[in-house]
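Let us work through a complete example step by step.
Step 1: write down the sequence.
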Amino acid sequence: MQTEFRGKKCVVLGLGISNLPLIDFLLDRGAIVCARDQKEIDVNNDRIKGFLDRGVNFKCGADYLQGIDGDFIFRSPGIRPDVPEIAAAVKNGAVLTSEMELFFELCPAKIFAITGSDGKTTTTTLTYKLLEKAAEEEGKDRRVYVGGNIGAPLLPLVDEMSADDYAVVELSSFQLMTMQKSAWGAAMTNITPNHLNWHTDMEEYTVSKYNVYSHGAKRVVLNADNDLTAALIGKTGAEEIAFSLTKNDTDICEDGGYITVKGERYLKVSDIKIPGRFNVANYMCAIGMTLGFVSKEQITEIAKTFGGVEHRNEFVREIGGVKYYNSSIDSSPSRTMAALSSYPTKPILICCGRDKHVPFDELACEILKRAKALVLSGEARDKIYAAMQKAGCDDFKIVIEPEFDKAVAAAKDIAEEGDIVLLSPACTSFDAFKNFEERGRKFKEIVNNF
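Step 2: predict the structure and record it as C-alpha cells.
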C-alpha cells in the first residue's frame, strides 16, 4: 500500500479511539482529510475544534456514508467493508484500508499478533509482559509496545519504533477482515461462534480470523483443542507451534503439573497466579509466541506476579463474606462458560447486555451445573431466560431486573456469606454502555458503594 499522503484525499470513517489520532497522523503528512461519523460532532470539543482549524471537513449524521470520494478510505473496524457506498468508492479507484493496516505497513518493529474468540486479551497481555521482562533483563535498548484492539493506538508511535523493538497487538475479526499483511508471529487462541450479528455467517467470521497468518507470518501458534484452529496444523506454511490442555503429543502441553515444551518443563502450573484452566491455555499460547525470546525463569516470574487484566475475573472486594468479581470482558457465551469454570464455589451470575445472535443453549446448561443463581438484565435477558427454560430451570433461582444497577443489587440480596457474585455478561455492552470497560467500571462503582 502507498504510504505517501501529501495532497491526497483521505476519508476517515468513524471517530473512535483509534481514528482520532489517525486524523492527526494524516494531517501531519499533508493529507486532505474528510472525517465521517454516524453521530453528530460536538463543535465545542477541543479536539474537534483543533481539527476544524486544521481544515478537516466533517460529514456526520444518518447519511454520513453518502458520496464518499477520496484517494484513501480508512474504515473503522465496526463498519463493514462491503457496504454499497464504500464498494462504489473502491470501484472508482479509492484504496480501502484502516488505521491498523497502515500501522502494519509502516511498523519497523517485529510484530506479534494475537486473535481468537476467547482469551486473546489475556494472551496478548502475557505475551507483552514476557517480552518486556526479557527486554529489561537483556540490557539492550529494546522497547516493547502493546496495542491494537486493547490499549492506546500504536500508529502515533510508529516513528519512534525501530527494527530492534517488539509490538504486540490484539486483533479482532473486524480488523482482520481486510488485512493484507501478517505479523512476524500470529496466534489463534480458539475460534467459537461470535459476532454473528455483524458477520454474515460463521464461515466469514472464521476466514477473518485465519487472515491473521495468511499473508506471510513466520510463526503460527495454534490451539490443538479447538477444531477450527487445529484444522490449520500442517497447512500454514510457517513454523507451527501447537498447544493443548488435553493432548500430550503437541509441542506445548501439560505433563506432571508442568507446562512442557517438546518434553522440556517450562512452567509449574501451580505457579500461575490467575485462576482457571483456560488461563493455563493462555500461558501455553503466550509461551509459544515468545519461544526463543524469553527464558523459563522469566516466564515463572511473570506467572507468579501477574494478577490478570482489568475486567477479566477481576476481584473487586469482599463485603459481609461475599466476594465480588468483575469479568465484564466476557461478551460471548463461551467466555462466560470459561469464567464459570474458574471458581471453587458456584457463583451468583449476572448476565446482561446485547446478544450477538449466538445461541445461549449450551451456556444455559452450564449455568444450571455451575452457578448458584442467575440475575438477568439488559436487552438479551429474555433470550437467555428462554434458553434457561428450555434447559429446565424450574428449581433454579433466576431474577430478572432490566436496569443494570438494580440487577447488581439483586445479586447482593441473594448472596450469603461465603458466596461469590460474578459479572460475566455473555453479551456485548452496547445496549447500555459504550464498551465493556465502562460496564465493568460501573459494576465496580456499584459494588464499592454497597
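Step 3: interpret the result. The chain has three domains: 9-97, 102-305, 314-448.
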